[in-house]
Amino acid sequence: MTERSPYLSAVALRALVEDGTVSARELVEGALARIAELDSATTAVVAVRAEAAISEAKAADELPAEQRGALHGVPVLLKDLTETTDLPTTYGSRALKDNYAPAEAVVVTRLREAGAIVVGTTNTPETGLRPTTENLLFGATRNPWNLEHSPGGSSGGAAVALALGMVPLAQATDAAGSGRIPASCCGVVGLKPTRGRVPLAPASYELMAGMGTIAPMARSVEDTALLLDAMSGPVLGDPYAIAGSRGATFADAVSRPPSRSRIGLCMTPPHGTLSPEVREVVAAAAGAFADLGHTLTDADVDFSGLRDPVFTVCAATAAAIVDTVPHDRLGLLEGSTLALARRGWLKTAADHVAAVSTMRNESARLLRAMADYDYIVTPTLTQPPPRVDAFPSAEDLDTRWREYLDWMAFVYPVNCTGQPAISIPAGQTAAGLPVGLQIIGRIGDDAGVLALAAAFAQARPWSAQHPPEPVAVAPAR
Fold first, then answer.
1. By C-alpha distance, which of 188, 269, 310 is closest to 180?
2. CA distance 476 to 137
3. Out of 23, 79, 150, 261, which one is annotated catalytic?
4. Catalytic residue among 93, 154, 184, 336
5. Residue 246 — pLDDT band, cuts 50, 70, 90?
6. How many CA atoms lie within 13 A of 359 on its CB side?
7. What is the model's pLDDT at position 74?
8. Which of 79, 127, 174, 188 could cross-link to 192 by cystine, CB 3.0-4.6 Å?
9. Per residue in 201-215, pLDDT tens?
C-alpha cells in the first residue's frame, strides 16, 4: 500500500485515484485500518462494513473514467441517525440496537452515486437530542485533543473521525447546532446548509419544525463544498425544498475569492456568558476578515427570544420519537431521553403550535436585524469543550437544558431562521482545546459562506493542526 498522510483531503485523494497513484481499494483499506488503530480510544465509529466497502472499492477501480463521480473511491462515514439498509441504524439507543431501516436515505444514495464508499457509521447521543456524544449503547465519544473532554454533539463521532484522519468526509446532521458544535470542539469544518438545501427524505420530510437538516462535515472548506454538491437538490414532497443553481457548484465557489462584504462581528450571546478565552481567540481570528479587505464592524444582534420555543420543540420531538419505540423496549431508553419526552407529553398541541409560531416570528425579527450585513461572525460556542459527563443529570431537566442552550447560544438560532452557517477553526485555548468561529450568511447564500470561509482558511490555515498521536486508550466509564 502506498504510504500517504491520513490527513489528505478528499480533493487530493480523488486526484491520486484519477492519476493511478493509489486505488480506491487502498483508500478504503487505509480508512478501515485507521479506524481499527485509533477508535478504541475515542469511540467515534460504531459500525463498519469492511467486506462490502472493499468489494465496492474493487468495483470502483474497474470503472472507466467517464463513469466516475466527483467522490469516486473516497471513503465516507455516515452518522448513526441516517438510514442505510446494510448497517443497523440504532440512533445511539439500546432500544434500537438491532434496527435496520427499510430504505436508505436519499442523501446516502446520492453519496454512493457520486462514487463515495461508505465504510461505517459514527456515534451519536440517543436520538441525537443532546449536544454531547454519550450513550449507554456504545459509551462516550471522546475528544482526541483531550480524552477527558467531549467532542460535542450530536455529530461527535463524525467530528472525531475527521480530526483523527480516519476518513476525509463525514455526513452529519444539524438541528440545533449538531454539526457545528462538534466541528468547533474538534477543530474541523461543519456546515449547516440553508433550510431545504439537503433533503431528509424518505424517512422524514420534517425534523423539529424545519430546524433540522443533513449536513456535510470535513477537515477543509473545499471538501465540505464537494460533499455539499453531492448531497444537495430537492426531492418531490419536501415542504422546504429549494431549487439548486444550475451550472455553478459549491466547489466552484470556494475556488474564487469572495466579493468584498460587510461583516458584523457579534460577541454577545443572548443568554449565558461568553468565556473570556473564547472571546480572545475569536476576536483575534476575526481580524483576518478586515485584513482580506472586508468591512468588519461590531454588530449588536439580539439572538434572544428563541430559547423557550426551541426547548418546547425539542421536547415535543423527543415525545414523538419515544412514541415509536416498541412498548417492551421502553425500559432500555436512557433517563435523559425519557425525561425530555415526558416534558413533551405534558405539552398540548396548542403549546407546540404557539412555540413554532413564536419561533417563526422571532426568526423574522432576527433576519431583519441582520439585513444590514452580508455575513455575521460569532464564536461557534460560548465555552470551550466540556469534560465528558459535565452536564447535570436527567433528574434536573431544566438546569441541564439551560446549560445546553447557554453553551449553544450562537448556533441554534440559525436553525430557526434557516440561514446557512459554518463553523471553522479559529484557534485553541491555552489548554490546547479547539475553538470555532461561525460565519452566518443570508438565506440561500451557502456559496458565499463557503467562499468566505475558504478565504479565511488561506489567511489563517489550520490544515497542519492535528490531535496528538498516539492516542492513549480512554479510561473506562
1. 188
2. 14
3. 79
4. 154
5. low
6. 26
7. 99
8. 174
9. 998 888 899 999 999
What pLDDT, on the 0 to 100 scale, is given for residue 470?
A: 46
Do 131 and 407 form a contact (C-beta atoms < 8 A)? Answer: yes
Active site residue 23: no
Phi, psi (deg, nearest 5) at residue 157: -65, -40
Residue 385 contacts residue 150 (beta carbons within 8 Å): yes
Helix (H) or strand (E) holding 120: strand 117-122
Domain boundaries, the chain: 10-459
Please state which CATH class domain 10-459 belongs to: alpha beta
Cell of 149: 473532554
Question: Which residue's C-alpha cell is 464564536?
Answer: 379
Angstrom distance (rounded) from CA 34 to CA 15: 21
Contact (CB, 8 A) for 465 and 189: no
- Count CB neighbours of 66 within 10 A: 5
What is the CA 394 to chain-centroid distance, rounded? 24
Give the other-Cβ count within 10 Å of 364's Cβ.
Answer: 11
Q: How far apart are CA 286 and CA 278, in angstroms?
A: 12
Hey, what amino acid is at 303? F
Gap between the Cα atoms of 56 and 75, Å rounded:
11
Single pTM value for the model: 0.97
Q: CA 240, CA 194: separation in Å to the nearest integer?
A: 10
Q: Which of 23, 155, 178, 184 is catalytic?
A: 178
Angstrom CA distances, 393 to 254, 284, 313, 399, 406, stand at: 43, 36, 21, 9, 17
Q: Give catalytic status of residue 58 as yes or no.
A: no
- How distant, in Å, are the alpha carbons of 44, 156, 234, 324 from that of 95? 20, 21, 32, 11
Cα dihedral 281/282/283/286 (nearest 10): 130
How far apart (Å, rounded) are the C-alpha atoms in residues 392 and 394? 7
Q: Is the peptide bond before 88 cis (omega within 30 degrees of 0)?
A: no
Cβ-based neighbour number of residue 273 at 10 Å:
11
Q: What is the pLDDT of residues 340-395, one digit of tens each?
A: 999 999 999 999 999 999 999 999 999 999 999 999 999 999 999 999 988 865 56
